[in-house]
Amino acid sequence: MKESVMGKPHVLVIPFPTQGHVMPLMELSHSLIDCGFVVTFVNTDFNHRRIVESIRQNDCQDRRIRLVSIPDGMAPGDDRNDLAKLCDTMLSVMPCLLEELILKINHDSNDDDKITFVIADQSIGWALEVAEKMGIRRAAFWPAAGCLLALLFHIPKLIESGIISANGIPIENQMIKLSPEMPAMNTAHFVWLCIGDPATQLSIYNTILRNNKAVKHADYLLCNSFYELEPSVLTLVPNLKPLGPLLGSSRFAHLWPQDSTCLSWLDQQPPRSVIYIAFGSLTILDKRQFDELALGLELSGHRFLWVIRPDLTNGLATGYPDGFEARVADRGMMICWAPQKEVLAHPSVTCFLTHCGWNSTMEGLSMGVPFLCWPYFADQFLNKSYICDIWKVGLGFNPDENGIISKEEINKKVKQIVGDEEIRVRALKLKETAMNSVSEGGSSLKNFEDFVEAMKC
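The structure assignment produced for this chain is given below.
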């Protein structure tokens, strides 16, 4: 298709409204803009305000993407970390609002600027249904491990095999593998069972079933992974097209303003001397566990950069252990949010203590940094299995009898990971593989180029 004749193709992109879902779709959107597309990016009103404020504070100059928003149906004071309530409320109000938005954009546009394609997060299958209803071509985007998507698509067989009930409850706790090359999965850690109370888990499970049905009507199925990372997944989900790694940048995707002063601090540290600690956007630590982590970092004697969101301790005052700040002042830095890709790429960083969210996993892999794994919920337990058991580029922690990861355990694993050259060599090899996948002739770049050409037809 010649753009001079037909105009630029116009794509509407809509993520599930959490940081880990917004970021990779924003990166994909900018890649499409670089290929000559017009992109309208739809956030919820709540996230839109946060992103606009983050853009203002970070002085982001890139204005090529069209940011718009619609309400999520939640009241201003509602807890948007209550994922079951968020999913149910979004389903009740957002489909009609999305349809109205598309109709308005197309009504106000000339023929060359109408929306001709929708890319929707697989976690909001209703957006794919809206696109189908309006006769618009569509792609589902999966922002997590391909292995997890294979598990979700496998639910009917899990029921048929007597592994789970029709409501998603394991008949018995056991370890299963979907294929020999994939991580062993604990049925008690299936993603829908790692979120909230039983009512929340059932709601999430039903949402998954609805999304599985909706995605069958997508024209394309994309994900943020790469063939070489999860080769067996493509046997189980043959129509899945990996485009990753889609790595976070400073462009429009952050719900918190980034503190870039940490990069200057890192410049002053010796090579491979700093532990980077970040738990993503949803992890909550209780005060006792927070204190143990602080004391464990102190006990290790290592330099560290620690990202501490304002809500990391669930709204409780994040007071440090007595005297902690003074004792670590010459070797520790604590900030609210970091430019993570740049931090992980910095030569002073020696390892990444992470919640094992998929974006963080992809960024750590792509920078060749060994992992210390501290999964919190959802898919993070599966990602930890990949990191520790399949790729062998990280270590996990062993909680005590009270479920607490002690300062002694933290100190022990820090020393172990820093001194393990075999893990570091494997991590650097995986970095090379990741970068090759998005370079000329790489598997993910070819998938992206094929997708771009298909969208222009």
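Interim note for the steering committee: The domain at 261-434 is CATH 3.40.50.2000 (Rossmann fold). The CA atoms of residues 438 and 445 lie 5 Å apart.
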